Amino acid sequence: MNKFILSEEIQEFITSNIGADVAKLALQKNKFPAADWTTILNQIAAKQKAKTKLPIWSNTSNIYYPSKISVEQTSSEKTAEYKSKLVSGTSLIDLTGGFGVDAYYFSIRVNQVTHCEINTELSEIVAHNFEQFQVKNVRCLAGDSSEILATLNQKFDWIYIDPSRRNDAKGKVFMLNDCLPNIPELLDFYFRFADKIMVKTAPILDISAGLSELKNAKEIHIVAIENEVKELLWVLEKNYSKEIQITTCNLAKGISEEFTFKYGSSSISNYSLPKKYLFEPNAANMKSGGFDEITSHFEVEKLHQHSHLYTSDSLIDFPGRVFEIENCFEYNKQNMKSFLENKKANITTRNFPETVENIRKKWKIKDGGNTYCFFTTDANNAKIVLLCSKLK
Predict the structure, then answer these.
(1) pTM for this one?
(2) How far does the chain reach from its first CA to its final CA, in angstroms?
């Protein structure tokens, strides 16, 4: 950590160049010989990234940023605030502290937070930033988290872990034992120091696969921002073996769409042909797999077992997009020529044999406009098209 970066002159330069082309700035001569030019440019790029993702950091003076990739990989303030609402008590230890965004929000809810980070420089950066925030209840410890736990040898109310993948060799499929720390291997060790553990994983982890590795799961939270799933949160409790609660949350435009159900429940969907309104679950609900539970909790019926679209004659508050169906017709050449060929429309496919790209190309449909088209399969296994106007 180069403390010359925190000089008033350099900080003013960094702030005044937010939004500038960093690649062009790199061609300029270093105006500040006491500091490394690449480090200064990194501060600009990282602060620029933090502007929307981490507004508290961006709007606080004398914040020191690690590499841009560390900022990209850290939790956003929105997801950190969400997970902080799941914890309480007097003590929490964050075993994979990183840039400290989660620890900051935990410190609002918990009396004493311990931030562990194996990277000594990053630990120093986080400690400095907490001083700027005047946060007094977070201690930053550098080193291996398992060694820190064993050395402290104290009981915490919560352990929080955000494991990182060792490599990308397996592509999109990975298991928790492919990560560091290896939580399945260390779980009994962790439970010696806390009865409650929260694990954050990337959204590509399959829920059933995660449950095969994590014992004592009590809750799973699927968190999306603006309909993009960002995190899976696994709440584990020592010796817990009862029903697992799934909560989906989509944080969008000042609202929070939430839906809760029991994992593995025996709900059975009701089916119907399209009615007046169409409902499309948000991304968090799609990830949850709770498609049958939706018809049990909301006054809607499903179009088809595999379509994951719902319909009703009543307009209800629904966790996802809501449309009014203006027309419904069978997918064939005559109907497509009459209603959509050479038109402008937003297209979605659900349980349909053709891709959006092929449909656009085949019928010369331009993207955009106020018409929303759903190409899907109905309860009679017919391929249909729904022309809709968006209500939410």
Answers:
(1) 0.91
(2) 47
